[in-house]
Amino acid sequence: MQLMEFAGGKIVLALEGGYNLKSLADSFLACVEALLKDGPSRSSVLTHPFGSTWRVIQAVRKELSSFWPALNEDLQLPRLLKDASMESFDGLGSSSSDESSASEDEKRFAVVTSIMEHSADHSSILSPTADDIVQPLAGLKIEEAGTDSQRSSDHTLLDLTNDDTQKLKQFEGELLVMIGDEESVPSASSSKDKNESTVFLSTSSINAHSWRLTFSSVYVWYASYGSNMWNPRFLCYIEGGQVEGMAKRCCGSEDKTPPQGIQWKVVPHRMFFGRSYTNTWGSGGVAFLHPNRSDTSEAHVCLYKITLAQFNDLLLQENNLNCGTEHPLVDLSSIDTIRNGNSILELIKDSWYGTIIYLGMEGGLPILSFTCSMCDVEKFKYGQLPLCPPSSRYENILIRGLVQGKGLSEDDAMAYIRAASTSPLL
User: Fold this and answer.
1) pLDDT tens for residues 297-343?
2) Which of 297, 293, 323 is CA-nearest to residue 311?
3) Closest residue by Cα to residue 362 from 113, 116, 101
4) Contact yes or no for 54/48 (Cβ under 8 A)
5) 50, 47, 331: which is closest to 214 by C-alpha?
6) Are 207 and 131 in contact (CB under 8 A)?
7) What is the DSSP letter of 257?
8) Do 330 and 356 meet the contact criterion of CB atoms below 8 Å apart?
9) Could you tell me the pTM of the whole model?
10) 7 in the Ramachandran plot: left (φ > 0), alpha (ψ -120 to 50) or beta?
11) How many CA atoms lie less than 13 Å away from 223 in the CB half-sphere?
12) Measuring CA to CA, which residue among 81, 109, 114, 82 is closest to residue 93?
């Protein structure tokens, strides 16, 4: 209220954040209410932490209280969410036997989807193990007392002794253990000499790890219809490298774990060959899947059971994008959109394989693939983009996949490819 007395009530509110529109709206409302009322506004969104999250909060407050004495004050124990929910979330990545894998995967996907949907109204609950805990440490830079270092506007600088620094490093490890992933969380990079001791946590590495940590526990089926039907070629996108016929190496996924399952399926979509040159295969067309269903078309697809994090890496590599992105291209919200919408979602504009398509469910998991946009399909139909048969080396990879994986005869595989490359695109 006192601020309203300045400048005739003309006040500019600069709110940091904005990553979650609902949280932004709630925060802005709280600020305006504080200006218009006598007392501070209470949060308009009632949230409750998980029991495991509350323990981490208490540990963080204890370790940092020597620098901020206000953290020594006792907090009233809030109503906690059932730890069973958190245990389900923490256990998403556990392995299961072949006999029970379908039901377990369905439970995993349902649990994470439920958390994502719940977070629409309770945004602070989403990813409490990463975003809400590790993120505040992202810009923390710690230097030994007495060092003369240039201060950066992007980081907080604290003067600490060597003993303090070691305690923080130890606390970082304890924090990651409490989060439940001590090995895969990027540790603080450190540099030492006799004059300084520095711990630096990269914002981008923690942001990237946040979504990868979550999506490494969520499985999907990736439906391949081109060269990835041949398992050794597909593994180049997971493990890195190249196979015979490829002129370009793949960097591979950050998670090198092979697919947890492989099966074949026929889908009601038209496969065709377009474009006339690629850096990987040279001259000739490459495979695309028409985004729309067609009752008169059939396409063979090889399904690979991979994590959503791996699917993002696959999509990034296919579109020649950097795998070190801080944000995923495909998240659970994207999957929910195409499951309940028109099954097509263009994520990357002006890209060959920037459109995600939903091909149904298998064993409780969504089947996803990527292809060209509907705009490009129209350009193919009317000659603005070339329809072109595949090169012999690209065709050979497809034949290997269909013969070794699907079990077709070589003649049947060749007939399938020839039909796809010569039939008119309707």
Assistant:
1) 999 999 999 999 999 999 999 999 988 787 899 999 899 999 988 89
2) 323
3) 101
4) no
5) 331
6) no
7) P
8) yes
9) 0.58
10) left
11) 27
12) 109
